[in-house]
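Notebook entry, cofactor series.
This is the third protein in the set we're modelling with a bound small molecule. For this one the ligand is magnesium ion. I'm keeping the input format identical across the series so the outputs can be compared line by line later. Sequence and SMILES below, as received.
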Amino acid sequence: MKSDVVLAEWGAALVDPATWRTVVAEADRGRVVRVDRGECDVMTSRGRRRVFSDSQRAQGEIAPVTGDWVELAEAEGLGLVIDRVLPRRTAVSRRDPAERDLEQVLASNIDAAAAVLGLDRPIQPGWLERLLVLAIDSGAEPVIVLTKLDAVRDPSDALELVDAIAGPTPVVMTSVVDGRGLDDLRALMGAGRTLGLVGESGAGKSSLVNGLVGAELLEVGEVRASDAEGRHTTTARELVLVPNDAGMVLDTPGIRSLGLWEAEHAVDLVFGDLVELAAACRFRDCAHRKEPGCAVQAAVGSGTMSTTRLRLFLELVGELEDLRRRGEERQRRRRKDGTRRAR
Ligand SMILES: Nc1nc2c(ncn2[C@@H]2O[C@H](COP(=O)(O)OP(=O)(O)OP(=O)(O)O)[C@@H](O)[C@H]2O)c(=O)[nH]1
Ligand SMILES: [Mg+2]
Ligand SMILES: [Zn+2]
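Returned structure with ligand:
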């Protein structure tokens, strides 16, 4: 592709918002639009380039992810390689549930982060809370997107539950069948801005991309009829340009599970207002049920805190206590086994 053709197509998308420098003049710079094993597609002013993600660097501290701004270099025998990943403005990342310190970056340099859930299945509060942690923790503007609005007769119960969790985070309901809500998503994008989508398989992320682009660009998979379980159709993280300078959207494969790290952070990131209130309770170990001097119950009484939100908060705190207790027991058992074997 020639430079002017790319510019006409990608336009503002190739302006690095961190520096406001157009990449056009710099053929050695670009943005990662797709990552496969060992290779990536990088959009540069000269078009889409397939580059090696040189294994040494890819396994190092910063492996390139979709959305990254990178500098390219020629490497002998390899052709174009990613020489450097520029500092990320924002990043959606999760922790490996087995190795909780291992961070996995799912998308970078996004401006809005959407936690996507389908209205075709029951909303699981614990799942939404964890997913919302990813969106809030990314540093981008978080938003909750409820898809398949056309597939439900009355979304009001689901919406009430979601609102109780969302707090100040905006909630958008969409349908790619009748187009409702797509303009609300477009409002989060705009020239040079990127909307990132995360959620479980079958939530409708790739369908949203197609809906925003107005073409069947990405593959979409049926969900199982019995329980709306997805089939993990999307396997690569992909950054897609929306025509007419309307911004970009970053699709990701369905997330299988989110663990303890996300749940722990949900206490502060999702229920921060309750943590703050609880600090004013008379007793430090207040359970916020019937204790005298409970600031949380006072807020419920005066109508500033919803009973549903309080119930969800107490459920999360209870679940965390369970998880921690079980983790400690496992450790104790392991230590005991160790001493037995050492004898
Ligand atoms: N009725 C209706 N169905 C939808 C809507 N959006 C998505 N679907 C359907 O939901 C199913 C899953 O959609 P996908 O877009 O493949 O879901 P995904 O989140 O990309 O799934 P993975 O790639 O597996 O993570 C498909 O059968 C879609 O046709 C919608 O707005 N309305
Ligand atoms: Mg998909
Ligand atoms: Zn209390």
